[in-house]
From TrEMBL:
GO terms for biological process: lipoprotein localization to outer membrane. The lineage of its organism: Bacteria, Pseudomonadati, Bacteroidota, Cytophagia, Cytophagales. The keyword DNA repair does not apply. Residues 274-400 form the ABC3 transporter permease C-terminal domain. The chain crosses the membrane at residues 27-49, 273-297, 327-352, 372-396. This is ABC transporter permease. Pfam families: FtsX, MacB_PCD.
Amino acid sequence: MNVARYISQKIDGGADSGSFTSSVTKIAIISIAMGLAVMVVSFAILQGFRNEIQNKIFSFGAHLQISRYDTNNSLEVAPIAAPLLVEELKQFPEVKSTHPFAVKTAIIKTKDEVLGVVLKGIAEPNGPSPMRTNMTAGKFISFPDSAASDDVLVSRKVADKLRLVVGDKALFYFIQNPARIRQFRVSGIYSTGLDEFDEVYVIGDIRQIRELNSPAWPDSLVGGMEVVLNDFDTIDRTADNFYEKLPYDLKIDKITDQYAQLFDWLQLLNRNVIIFLILIIFVATFNMVATIFIMILERTNMIGILKALGATDNQIRRMFFFRGLSLTVRGMVIGNVIAVGFCALQYYFHVIPLDPENYYMDRVPISWDPKMLLLMNAATFVTSLLAVLIPTYLIARIKPVVAIKFD
């Protein structure tokens, strides 16, 4: 029989529910539970924000964007040969997929409104476009084999400004030599919540842009290539490899540079949450230290008797260690139940809404990350046990004669 564990269980089970120690014990359990729950929920929400915003950005620009160097400041650049570039990109194992694109500035005119936009032409040679995830109404662009599609996607902001709905037709004026006019049909409406995209871009078939250019581009030419990587964290290293191995006249743009403000904001969120979590762990640890101190002071008489009966300091220290371990495990179980329950409730029922104008999304996002959950549980467990050990060294200073008289 483990004597230290046995006595610890007796102390745990025999505590008076109205005693001061019982109240402090409950506070310690609640402190650990709430600390762990707040950490888990905070990371789930933070990661959810990161994933949602990054996915919205990647749906427009992927991780890397390759285009030809151009000395002018226009969005319309010299074309590149898509088949040759795709073959060169196949030598990089970091590349997951490639998506050709081309852009052209235009003016949309309806009966009552006029608005300048950028028409971005896309294709779906390697599976459905990630833009499909941003659809809020209508259907995505159809890509017929015989001719270029007349369908376009407009953002909710553009649709509201021009008073367009799904199925409406609008005239697009392209300022070039000679000037050209095309009539497109609004097949669908998208929304990302990011003004950088929603106020500017209209999505269409890349073949329309090829036909509008003068002289018209053959099917082998594109305005650029968007590259999706297997691992976003390798973006810096992969971009450097592209610079070294791809032709010198190609420009490689990282999404983190194109939208630096958004990614800087996400990094700032990370730092703030880390500081907040450190404070939570400190408070929970302090409460555990205070709880064990109070237990030792209230059990001073018992400690003196045990020492008089021959118990060593290590045996008594282990007794309070097991007591602290019991409190920690109880607090962690309760904390995990609260955190997982809240996350599941928000994930499936969206009980907490957000203003898309300020937060880029209409609800608080939740991201499930089992590894992070295990890591936070492990961190809480280790720090709590270390906190338990600190006050137990007070036991060595307790003398049996004085302790037995202690009241």
